[in-house]
Amino acid sequence: MGQPESRENRAADQSELPPGQRLQRGWPVTHYGPVPKFKPDRWEFRVFGATADGDKHCWNHQEFSALPFSSVVADLHCVTKFSMLGAEWGGVPARTVLELAPPAPEATHVMVWAEYGFSSNLRMADFAADGTLFATHKDGELLTAEHGFPLRLVVPHLYAWKGPKWVRGIEYMTADRRGFWEERGYHNIGDPWSEQRFSYQEEPGDGPEL
To answer: Which residue among 54, 59, 140, 174 has the highest number of C-beta atoms inside a 10 angstrom radius?
Structure first.
């Protein structure tokens, strides 16, 4: 997986930063709670909730690692106001999961579940977007445990909290429901270009009632 030719120039271009963000060289470690220990024999990825066939779908670590691998060059924007530009992420596209375990027609949202019961909600359109990826690698290297190994979700067009570390599965939902940080005052959508940082900024229709 090669690096894009213009990556250094791109990373230096402050004009590509969303409002209120600053350019970050390097990748700070930010998360809530401890780093979980990876136990490959106990790990599984689950898709449940409003699935098209009404069943739960599961992959163990070996099976999930064998799914089609793809890469995307995309930015990461943290709500704490740093942005990392032009990273190359590798892993399983969210669209692949949608194809293998499709949602029911009435499913409108996805709850992404991670270790320790952490969760983040997404509109189905955000989850199905071209750049949304269950990442296992960054810049050709496996993720470290501190950065989400063995699996983190990357949703480049939203703030990074919408892409949890240590993902264990997704729940298809027929109505929106706030996730961990959304219940604690973060914006329900999280668009960095609109600076949707906090729930008090929400407009009618941005999410379920507080």
So the answer is: 59
Other CB atoms within 10 A of residue 39 CB? 8
How do residues 123-175 score in pLDDT, each as one tens digit?
999 999 999 999 999 999 999 999 999 999 999 999 999 999 999 999 999 99
Q: What are the helix (H) ranges across the chain?
A: 7-11, 61-65, 94-100, 124-127
Residue 148's region, left for phi above 0, alpha for psi from -120 to 50, else beta, is left
- How do residues 20-76 score in pLDDT, each as one tens digit? 999 988 777 777 778 999 999 999 999 999 999 999 999 999 999 999 999 999 999
DSSP 30-45: --SSPPPPP-TTT-EE
Q: In this structure, what are the phi and psi dihedrals at residue 145, rounded to the nearest 5 degrees?
A: -60, -40
What pTM value is reported for the model? 0.90
Structure token pair of residue 136: 């296992």
Length of the chain in terms of residues written: 210
183 Cβ partners below 8 Å, 6+ apart?
A: none
Q: Output the six-digit token pair for 158.
A: 């939203």
